[in-house]
Amino acid sequence: MKRVVKKLRSFLSDKAYDSRDIHNLLHENDVKSIIPPRENVSALSRGSPSRAKTARQTRENGEDR
Q1: Do residues 32 and 10 lie in contact, with contact meaning Cβ atoms separated by under 8 Å?
Q2: Could you please report the per-residue DSSP string of 6-37?
Q3: CB atoms within 10 A of CB 1
Q4: What Cα–Cα distance (Å) separates residue 25 from each residue in 7, 34, 56, 59?
Q5: At what angle do helices 20-28 and 49-61 cross, to 10 degrees?
Q6: Cα–Cα distance between 6 and 29 in angstroms, integer?
Q7: How confident is the model over 2-46, as pLDDT tens digits?
Q8: How far is CA 24 from each of CA 10, 55, 62, 63, rounded to the nearest angstrom?
Q9: CA within 13 Å, CB half, 1
Q10: Gap between the Cα atoms of 16 and 38, Å rounded
Q11: What is the pTM of this model?
């Protein structure tokens, strides 16, 4: 996936791609991502600040997970 990410500008996926590793990889390569968080996502920053930010924003906006 690392080879493909370098060519991407944006990434749209489903909940299956909601992981720290994927969020970090996309963030490191300046790829804009839309990945809905899983139901059990934590809003704490445990290895992925961008994933935690998405989880907090989702909860604050009252969006369905």
Answers
A1: yes
A2: TT-SEEE--GGG--HHHHHHHHHTT-EEE-PP
A3: 10
A4: 13, 14, 20, 23
A5: 110
A6: 6
A7: 777 778 899 999 999 999 999 999 999 999 999 988 888 877 868
A8: 14, 14, 24, 23
A9: 10
A10: 8
A11: 0.75
| Angstrom distances, CA of residue 65 to CA of 3, 34, 44 | 30, 13, 17
Residue with tokens 């909860």: 59
Helix (H) or strand (E) holding 55: helix 49-61
- Which single residue is written with the structure tokens 């992981």? 19
What band does 58 get if pLDDT is binned at 50, 70 and 90?
Answer: confident
